[in-house]
Amino acid sequence: MKTCAYDEFYLPMAMENLGDALEYAVCELALEPDDFFQRFLASGVADAFGNGNPVFMAGLSGAEMARCVLERTGTIGEMPFINASVYKGAEYWAGWTLAYYQWQSGRPFSNIYRYISIAEIIEMYHPLHEAPESKFVTALDEIISKKQENEPTRLQFYRKLAGYSQKQLAEVSGITLRSIQMYEQRNKDINKAKFETVHRLSQVLGCRMENLIEYSI
Questions:
Q1: SS3 at position 114
Q2: Cα 185 from Cα 214, distance rounded (Å)
Q3: 8-state DSSP, 24
Q4: pLDDT at position 81
Q5: Is 13:57 a contact under the CB 8 Å cutoff?
Q6: Contact between residue 24 and residue 33 where contact means Cβ atoms under 8 Å apart
Q7: Taking the CA of residue 87 as centre, how many other CA atoms within 13 Å lie in the half-sphere pointing to its CB?
Q8: What is the pLDDT of residue 76?
Q9: CA 80 to chain centre
Q10: How far is CA 171 from CA 16, 19, 62, 163, 187, in A?
Q11: CA–CA distance, 210 with 202 (Å, rounded to integer)
Q12: For the chain, which ranges sit under pLDDT 70?
């Protein structure tokens, strides 16, 4: 069962703010959509926003949030101040609908961005901008699911990063080799593993327990 990122009360404001922020950055400041979004991630604002920080949900306008992002990552040129979007075009829709997807899926923005760029989301505007949000959710779920099939599990990623073979990890962690193999082949769901199992693996691999959890579609 998916857990929404924050209380639904904030969702309309969040969607509007991210839409306004992206459109302000692209249409007023002439930034490339992905340039701004990478700054959004690097600034720490994406994490705060995605966790429902009320400052970014309701305390700031979209333009103010964009300015905050740029100030934290290095101001570029003059930034005209606008309280609200005057365009409501493809860029606004991309931010607006992405905020909805992040809320509905519970995925961090950084995780979503691994699978799709903002430019690609903008390209989805014409077929989907008049459709209900659920259509975008379904479309993006399908994109992510297909790409996930061709990438290693998070356990495999952190195991290799730490320099362990499957056998070595089994010996050090006390988790059976067969279990580790099945988790990495996705034949066994690590999200349903016992707390002790994930804790042992994370301790050996030097990462947080949540780093080993797979995001479900």
A1: coil
A2: 12
A3: I
A4: 65
A5: yes
A6: no
A7: 19
A8: 67
A9: 28
A10: 51, 49, 51, 14, 21
A11: 9
A12: 1-2, 76-87, 216-217
Domains of the chain: 8-148 (no CATH), 154-212 (1.10.260.40)
Instruction: Look up the pTM and report it.
Output: 0.79
Euclidean distance between CA atoms 17 and 22, whole angstroms: 9
In tens, the pLDDT along 104-129 reads: 999 999 999 999 999 999 999 999 99
Q: Which residues of 68-82 are buried (b: 16+ CB within 10 A; e: fewer)?
A: bbbeebeeeeebeeb
What is the model's pLDDT at position 96? Answer: 97
With contact defined as beta carbons under 8 Å apart, do 72 and 41 qualify?
A: no
Determine the pLDDT at residue 183. 96
Residue 207 phi/psi, 5-degree rounding, is -130, 175
**Spatial separation of the C-alpha atoms in residues 74 and 68, rounded to whole Å:** 10
Q: What does the alpha-carbon distance between residue 189 and residue 183 come to, in Å, rounded to a whole number?
A: 6
The pLDDT of residue 135? 96
